[in-house]
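for the recovery benchmark. tokens below, seq after
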């Protein structure tokens, strides 16, 4: 909050600045540490990426990036800030209140086991710090309640489907869920979430990939949403049909189709003998039963958080038996691939090539096309 109140930083921070500068260097509340962080951020904005790139290279599975993104979401719930694309800024009109919120010498909460003490000091959910004077009547306004309902439904939606901007479809869905006036919903969403919440969705997608059987169906549905809303594929969630892969995809632009099997494994997925047999003897030869007959099958792919050490030979074995290229796509690489396609830095042909490598897809494979 101190950094967001700093004019030198234009009252804003990016996720990368939080992840690779603030988390590492803001060790105390001292003025010296504050100035060190400010200087590092200004150097980064001036084009000195050496420190950030070094810390990125030492990071495993975007650990600090995910912490920063989660913290940014919590910070947004304080109602002191507005979210931009991978950034957060101090909300206009909140400058004085935000400075009052900051303590020069932060103290621990007395009797922290009493939740009322915490709520009074720091707020809860969508409520900011409780500064009410209980000697006077204080109630939420009708408008506050409306905004809370719209915000809640929008956040729930953005965790299920990638929202890259506010569309008529999004407005209609939130209107139906809240029962509020469509024009009012439209104005609120476009003001509060002009760039969508794609990072929130990606964070949720990563979590689903390690939830095991509890998150299997949602993981599959989220994969459909990515191929449909980001890559522009026609998709079918065919997993529930039985004896089918999880997702069938079809690209009119690329003139090909593909089959996806999601694996929500915590400790790396390897293709067992039975899974290999099903892919070779059922999924690939029976594609016309659950898919389509318009385009040829270009690839099969397994999407998981990570893979076992023998995954490359297992993928090549299926290719040798079926002559259909395949791949093992880690979730983090898939997210980076989707982000690159959103920025229009890669084409649909590159997407097909990466899914057809006959091995695990690496970040370096994607980087070679950027």
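predicted aa per position
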């Amino acid at each position: 909050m101190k950094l967001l109140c700093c004019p030198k930083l234009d009252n804003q921070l990016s996720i990368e600045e939080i992840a690779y500068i603030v988390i590492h260097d803001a060790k105390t509340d001292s003025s010296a540490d504050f100035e060190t962080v400010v200087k590092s951020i200004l150097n980064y904005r001036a084009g000195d990426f050496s420190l950030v790139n070094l810390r990125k290279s030492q990071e495993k599975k975007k650990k600090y990036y995910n912490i920063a993104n989660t913290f940014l979401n919590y910070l947004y719930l304080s109602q002191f800030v507005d979210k931009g694309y991978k950034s957060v800024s101090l909300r206009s009109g909140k400058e004085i209140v935000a400075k009052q919120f900051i303590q020069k010498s932060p103290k621990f909460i007395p009797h922290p086991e009493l939740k009322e003490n915490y709520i009074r000091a720091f707020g809860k959910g969508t409520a900011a710090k409780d500064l009410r004077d209980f000697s006077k009547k204080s109630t939420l306004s009708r408008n506050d309640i409306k905004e809370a309902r719209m915000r809640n439904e929008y956040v729930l939606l953005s965790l299920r489907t990638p929202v890259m901007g506010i569309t008529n479809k999004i407005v209609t869905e939130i209107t139906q869920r809240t029962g509020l006036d469509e024009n009012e919903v439209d104005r609120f969403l476009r003001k509060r979430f002009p760039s969508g919440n794609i990072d929130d969705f990606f964070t949720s997608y990563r979590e689903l990939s390690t939830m095991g059987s509890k998150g299997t169906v949602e993981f599959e549905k989220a994969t459909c949403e990515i191929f449909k809303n980001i890559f522009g594929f026609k998709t079918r969630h065919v997993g529930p049909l039985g004896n089918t892969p999880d997702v069938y995809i079809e690209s009119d632009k690329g003139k090909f189709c593909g089959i996806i099997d999601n694996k929500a494994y915590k400790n790396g997925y390897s293709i067992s003998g039975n899974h290999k047999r099903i892919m070779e003897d059922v999924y690939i030869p029976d594609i016309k039963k659950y898919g389509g007959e318009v385009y040829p099958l270009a690839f099969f792919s397994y999407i998981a958080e990570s893979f076992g050490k023998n995954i490359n030979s297992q993928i090549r074995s299926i290719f040798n038996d079926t002559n259909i290229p395949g791949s093992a796509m880690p979730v983090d690489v898939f997210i980076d691939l989707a982000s690159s396609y959103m920025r229009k830095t890669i084409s649909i042909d590159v997407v097909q090539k990466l899914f057809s490598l006959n091995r695990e897809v690496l970040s370096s494979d994607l980087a070679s096309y950027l």
